[in-house]
Amino acid sequence: MYFDTRMMTNTLLKRVFQTVSLTIFLGLFCHAAWAQSDEVLEQQRVQYDEVRAKTILELQPFRHETAVVLTDADTELRWVSMNPAINGWFLLQIGTFDSRTAPTSYHIENPNPTGQTVRLETGPNPTLILNDETGTEFCAPWADGQSALNEARETGLPFAPLCGGRLYLRNQVSGSRTSLERTAEFLRDHFWGGETIVRFVRDSFFRDSQFETSEELEATGFGRLAVGPGAAAIDAPLEERPVIATQTELGLSGTDGHRMTLGLWYPVIGLPGVFASAMQPKAISEAVTQGPGVTSALDWVEARAITYLVAFDLGRFDLNFALGTDHPGLGWSPRPPSRIRPRGVPGPDGINSPRPLVTLGMVNPALADRTVAVFTGGFKRAHGAFKWGDYISINFGTHYGFIENGTILSKLQPSLSTLYVLADGTIGMKTWTEDDNVLLPQIRFARQNGVPLLETDPETGLGVPGALVTRWGPGNWSGSADAKLRTLRAGACLRESEGERYLIYGYFSTATPSAMARTFQAYGCKYAMLLDMNALEHTYLALYVRHEGDLLVEHLVPGMRLIDKKARDGSLIPRFLGFVDNRDLFYLTLREE
Fold first, then answer.
1. At 256, which helix (H) or strand (E)?
2. Any signal peptide, and if so, which residues (predicted)?
3. I want to staple 348 with a disulfide (CB 3.0 to 4.6 A). Which of 68, 70, 86, 399 is the partner?
4. DSSP 486-554
């Protein structure tokens, strides 16, 4: 079955490559400095499509390679733009490139891909030419025996500045782990049936471990309906909406102490365009719970469980994505049966490691001052494929795909929920199709995570529960075999209101996919997807507020603070912003004019 799918993909991608070649030739990609021939693009397309062991470079169909010989060293220098249209990641390789000696590789990042062009000027003295609004910089970090590159590598910094800070060398470092995650990985890696042991412990002791609820307080009618993305659908009028006690750490405007009226949005103090809300599924309007789409009935626990939501006005923020040092991983998930794996192929895309590229699980320091929020990305590769249902026989188990800075690290698969960002900053969320592959050359970031919680009804334009929301195995929702296990979960959705678009992050203290779908539906989301689950480090969200020169870190719930680190002086070092992490992340930055 997957052979037919791949044939369709090949035909479509051939059109994509022809289009890309023509577009670059016409100069429509403002950051692409070199035209690529149809012949080169065709060769790279063949490498991308082939089912075999391959290199990370062979997985990049739009790459541009330039090779020169260094006259003073009798060595060859190769400069590879991973995707010229995105202008974010580059690979510099220096060596003899023979079968006996591997070249030395350096993964270099452009921290300003939309504002700074990077071009290799060939000739007797090859030089990088960097252009942005501040002027032109000439840089040859390979000169003087690669002294600048060696010094940057020896710093041990995950991001080491090059060329006066106009570029960064990405250095491989170890990601941090919490004790819970270290224990889980140890069990899986060293004990027979370790996955079963971990699941037993989770199901027995961590079920509802983050469950949060509140008795209804006196209804005050405090708050307004027309704030942020717009209030959630609740049958009670404003003055009778339930008010609950909450434990969120976020500093909110308009609340009475730590009380929040269900379904209303409250502005986050110090972060214009960011809002927070609280919900208990039992309060959702019957027009939603009994409306279009099929979901399972909510039990009394998850009906009372508190959900926190944070909304970001996409007119103000850019969305970014980064892989962790270890996860999600690029090899095979153990979930699909081994019989579907082609012999000798180390992963579903022909690779099992990003090397010589470096993944860091951290925001580039050049973007730290503009970063307003981070949240954990999605499932590990071990859990990011299907064990039951139709998708195990399609595309080698339909492993979840992801793209960072225009570099394809795992192919985007049809039928999966996909959160993506295009080169022009456009943010989208949809169920990926074969036809959507025409977007590949324009994708800056993308992350897939299972099947949809909500899909957009083509007739009404409204979000309705996905077809597999109630099907535990085929939907790959994780949990117990009877599909009734509640657990801590996180998800995201897109909402349009009054001409504005919002990305909404949802933290569900204990919920099934059905509760998530109906909650996002109540908030008017057009599309929604699962992110990760089961532990606070997997559902982590923090906001960064600048106040009088200080950085204030506000966690969605207090327990997330324990995942951060502390310096010797006791000051907080925030996760993803102050140190590398083994998990992938999304982060939002202030949009520049």
1. none
2. 1-35
3. 399
4. -EEEEEEEEEEETTEEEEEEEEEEEE-HHHHHHHHHHTT-SEEEEEEESSGGGS-EEEEEEETTEEEEE
SS3 for 120-178, per residue?
EECCCCCEEEEEECCEEEEECCCHHHHHHHHHHHHCCCCEEEEHHHCEEEECCCCCECC
Q: How many residues does the chain have?
A: 593
User: What band does 396 get if pLDDT is binned at 50, 70 and 90?
Assistant: very high
| Whether 142 contacts 397, CB under 8 Å | no
Whether 377 and 391 have beta carbons less than 8 Å apart is answered as no
* Cα–Cα separations (whole angstroms), residue 414 to 5, 426, 430, 468: 9, 20, 10, 15
Please check whether residue 370 is in contact with residue 588, taking contact to mean a CB–CB distance below 8 angstroms.
Answer: no
Rounded CA separation 86/511 (Å):
38
Identify the burial level of 276 via C-beta atoms within 10 angstroms of its C-beta, where 0-12 means exposed, 13-18 middle and 19 or more buried: buried
Question: CA 396 from chain center: how many Å?
Answer: 22
Angle between helix 179-190 and 194-201 (nearest 10): 140
Question: Does residue 423 sit in helix, strand or coil?
Answer: coil
573: helix, strand or coil = strand
pLDDT at 222: 56
Could you tell me if 582 and 361 are in contact, meaning their C-beta atoms sit under 8 angstroms apart?
yes
Q: What are the distances in angstroms from CA 555 to CA 248, 544, 569?
A: 7, 9, 21
d(CA 332, CA 541): 28
Which one-letter amino acid corresponds to residue 52? R
Per-residue pLDDT tens digits for 44-66: 999 999 999 999 999 999 999 99
CB within 8 A of 408, min separation 6: which ones?
A: 48, 59, 60, 61, 349, 401, 440
Name the more confident of 363 and 215. 363
* DSSP H or E stretch at residue 194: helix 194-201
Reported for 441-444, long-range contacts at CB under 8 A and 24+ positions apart, including other chains, are 441/16, 441/19, 441/20, 441/23, 441/62, 441/83, 441/85, 442/85, 443/86, 443/403, 443/406, 444/86, 444/88, 444/113, 444/403, 444/405, 444/406
> Which token pair is 584?
């992938």
If you average pLDDT over residues 480-507, what whole number do you get? 85
